Structures are given as structure tokens and as C-alpha cells.
Amino acid sequence: MSDRNDIDALIEMMARLPGLGPRSARRAVLHMIRKRALLLQPLADQMARVAQTARECLNCGNIGTSDICAICASEKRATGLICVVEDVADLWAMERAAVFKGRYHVLGGTLSALDGVGPDDLRIPALLTRIETEAVTEVILALNATVDGMTTAHYIADQLEGRVTLTSLAQGVPIGGELDYLDDGTITAALNARKPV
Amino acid sequence: MSDRNDIDALIEMMARLPGLGPRSARRAVLHMIRKRALLLQPLADQMARVAQTARECLNCGNIGTSDICAICASEKRATGLICVVEDVADLWAMERAAVFKGRYHVLGGTLSALDGVGPDDLRIPALLTRIETEAVTEVILALNATVDGMTTAHYIADQLEGRVTLTSLAQGVPIGGELDYLDDGTITAALNARKPV
């Protein structure tokens, strides 16, 4: 239908977003068109604004709206303590828990021999520089518990050995988790790391 | 984090779309920011364009970019044959099947005593007018097989009785459907409407 070209193009673009497919993109676009003054136009404006202002923090790799992100710029965050994460989404998840008061370093992925990702493709050199310039004493490795994540954690641990205190997130039963639904690996890790009550 | 206000606002707006929640909205926004030149800015532009141009067809209620939609304006579509659907999404689904060559009429919902939706809240008066002005001979009721959909179909059938040929979509086993997974109502309908081979 020739006069739906604009709308079809929008549906196609929305369908490319992660978590949306053609069907949900159609539903979302119809919903937005029905509320175009309340939803579609403001969303378009906000996207244009973010497209202009969003940038990676030059220091840690977090995504924000300034060259140095709010966390790196904050005087309230402890210096000398860096939490290493794979991805900005992981950093945001840590921030939602609102328990970590140090700073972050976003690697931007994991080492992967298969995909040809080496240390220089990640922000590992920048991490090594920060260890010196920010007088870091502890590095927390908060990488995902996948094969690639653990390979990367080992590589970073090798590089930093003897220079800083290295820690990693505890593994065990998630809060609210039921044993019956946990995988064997998690149960094994939780049992091995059992604590006196 | 003060400098994420713009990004947080975008995530909140995306999370209001049907089919997206806070988590998938965050993922989508991060994905868009990473590809801002390829995805975020073009999407913003396209949304702004659609917000300006999208409108309801004055004749049938379809959503397009002109006052009379491409289907109503097309000379290739049979006149005198109208398919009545609840929603624009239903019309688009019918068009994807690309088998119906008549025109449509979008009701914009169903009659519902509970929600206080009466005939005048839907595009039923407009349908009655079209029956006369377009010299309609057949009306296909393609309403959803829900209680409200069937109530609405009955109401329209009452209004049109004797004035046009009334038909409705066949009910039965969906193509590719397995009997084992079908509900009793569908099996009953399919059995009652059985055809000689």
C-alpha cells in the first residue's frame, strides 16, 4: 500500500531493535500513532536529543551525556576501587543495586579467540593505565559467569597480579532462588563456598 | 546519576510501549545509542515524520498518510464489498494475507456494556452510511471470535438484515494446526462445518 510507506519504514526500523520483532513492532507503532501527540512526537524528540548528547565516558566507558560520566566525575565515589564489567548494561545493573560506591571500568565485551577479540579490542590497556594514574588498590572483577567472561577475568587477573588486590563477585544461590530451579553448577558453587551460620 | 537524565527519560518512554518493559527498553536504548548514527537518529527522524503525516482514513478508519487511504482510493479494489474489522491491526493482518480485494471498515473497537461502549462510540453509523453511498452488496464480518466481538457482529447483522448479503469468516482448524493443541470450541466448530472431500 503506497501510502503506508512511511509507516512501514518505521515498523521495519522498530523491528530491528533487540526484543522486538515484526509483530510487536507493528503493535508498538500502531499504539504510538494512536497517541501521536502524547507519545510519538515526544519520543522522536527525545531520541533526537539523545542521539546528539549520548557519548561514552572517556575514562570508564560508561554511557552518559558528558565526556566524563557522572560516576567518574563524582567526588562521593571512592577512588582506588574499580569494578570491572563487560558492558554498560552490567554497570547500570550494579548502579540499580546502589551498593557499590567505587568507580567502574567497562571492557566493552570479552576476549574471544573464536570472534578474534584480543585485549587491545577491549578497554584493557585503558584499565592498566587507570591502575597507575588513579592509584587503584582493589579491582573487583564483575564479569559474567560465562566461558568468555571467565577467560577474560583470568587474563586481567594475570596482568594485575601483585599490583592490586583482586576480588570477584561471590557465586551462590540468588536471593529468592529455589534450589529446585537452580542448575548444578550454581548449587556446587554455593555448597563449596558455604558459610557458618 | 544526574547526567543520565536524558537517557533515563528515553528509557522510561520506550518502556511505555506495548511489548516492552523497563528491562527490554534499557536494552533497546543501549543498542540504539551504540548505533546512534545508523539507528537512533534515523529512527527519531522517521518517528517525527510519521507523527506529522499519519492520519485515519476519513472513509474506513485505516491508518495511512492521506485523508483517504490507499485502499479506499484504489480503483483496483472491488466496490460494493466491505470487510468489517475491529481494529487497524486486523486490517493489516488481512492485507498481509493479500487475498481480499474489496474495501474495509474499521470499527475502532467492539460494543461493550461493561466499558460503556455503544454503537455511536464505534464507526457503526459511518458503516451504515457507506452501505448506501457505496452501493454495497456484501458485508463480511471479520470480527474477533470473542464475546464482545460476537455481540458486535450480531448487532451489525441486525442493522443490515435484508439490506446486504452478510457473511462471516469461516471457523475451523487453522492451517498447520494440530488437533491435540486446539480448544474444544474450535474442534466443535470445525466438525459442525465439515465439508465433503
UniProtKB/TrEMBL annotation, chains A, B:
Superkingdom in the source lineage: Bacteria
Q: What does this protein do?
A: May play a role in DNA repair. It seems to be involved in an RecBC-independent recombinational process of DNA repair. It may act with RecF and RecO.
Q: Which keywords does UniProt give here?
A: DNA damage, DNA recombination, DNA repair, Metal-binding, Zinc, Zinc-finger
Q: Which Pfam families match?
A: RecR_C (PF21175), RecR_HhH (PF21176), RecR_ZnF (PF02132), Toprim_4 (PF13662)
InterPro entries according to UniProt: DNA_Rcmb_RecR, Rcmb_RecR_Znf, TOPRIM_dom, TOPRIM_RecR
Q: What is this protein called?
A: Recombination protein RecR
The Toprim domain covers which part of the protein?
A: 80-174
Where on this chain are zinc fingers (C4-type) annotated?
A: 57-72
HAMAP family attached to this UniProt entry: RecR
> What family does the entry list?
Belongs to the RecR family.
